[in-house]
Every structure is written in C-alpha cells, then in structure tokens.
Amino acid sequence: MSISVEVGDLTHVEADAVVNAANSLLLGGGGVDGAIHAAAGPRLLEACRRLRTTSHREGLDVGDAVATPAFDLPAAWVIHTVGPNLHRGQDDPALLASCFARSLDVAAELDVRSVAFPAVSAGAYGWPVTDVARIAVLTCRGWLAEHPASSIENIRFVVLDERAREVFETALDAA
C-alpha cells in the first residue's frame, strides 16, 4: 500500500476512483467540483440529480461520501465528499477527517485499488493546506492500518501547485 502526492489535474488522473470536493447539493459548483462535473460530462449531473431524488433527498452531509460513475473521466468512479467550510464555522477537524475516511469506505465498497484525492476544504472552504495535509495523511494512514484486507493499494493526493505538494510531502514524512 502506498500514499503519494503529485501536482496535477484531478480530471486527468488515471485512478479507479477520484474524490470530488463536492457541495452538499451534489449538483456541481466551482473549483474541483466544477472541474470534475465539466470533465465528466452531463451524465454526472444526471447521476447526482438521481441521488437527490432517491437516497440523498436532503443532500450529502458534511463529512459523508457517496459514489457515482465517472462517465467521461479516466477514472471509473467519482466519490463525492462534502468538506467542512471554515468560513461557515465548520472548524471541527473530525469532520474533515471523516471526508477522507468515508471516501475510503466507499472506495473499499466499490473494490477499487487506487484512489486520488484533492486537498478537500483547502480551497474556497478556507482550511489551511497544512491542516488539510496533516489530517488527510493521518486519516488515510490510519484507515489503511485498520483495513489491511481492503482492495485499496494506492492513495494519491493530487494538488494544484508546488507549495501544496511540499506541504503534503512534509505531512507524509511526519506521519
């Protein structure tokens, strides 16, 4: 099992599942969410709308995760998770950790081998990338240790710039 970090575009990553930093409505938005919806094509929005009329009528809770097919993305699955929004007072690190843990739970249920994460909540939701990196790395390492028989073999953090990569590398070295 490996955990790595790279600078790149999550919409071009070849992984079994990519994690979308979604909003609770699951209907697309800005940042990573908007990029994933644009690259996956209109069927992703249709799949998310179906979730809103069936299992997630009230939307997706902060810290939870749900999957849809990835459609036009290189991945097979998109795992949508809603990170806590620091600007709205959602400052509990457990909520952020839950995004990573629940995404891995969903990935394991899908029997995937590789998962690619963005820096959930580090962008428009205002969390410092240092906090996101530390929480993400510790949560993913802990999850892998607790689930040694899972199908997941590779976790990748795909970040937007060199600074974020360095922060995640530091978190990986420290954990």
TrEMBL record:
Molecular function in Gene Ontology: O-acetyl-ADP-ribose deacetylase activity
NCBIfam families linked to this entry: PRK00431.1-6 (NF001664)
Stretch forming the signal peptide: none
Gene3D superfamilies membership: Leucine Aminopeptidase, subunit E, domain 1 (3.40.220.10)
Protein name, as recorded: O-acetyl-ADP-ribose deacetylase
Keyword S-adenosyl-L-methionine tagged: no
TM regions (residue ranges): none
Enzyme Commission number: 3.1.1.106
Pfam family, one: Macro
Keywords: Hydrolase
Residue ranges annotated for the Macro domain, each copy included: 1-175
Keyword Repeat belongs to the record: no
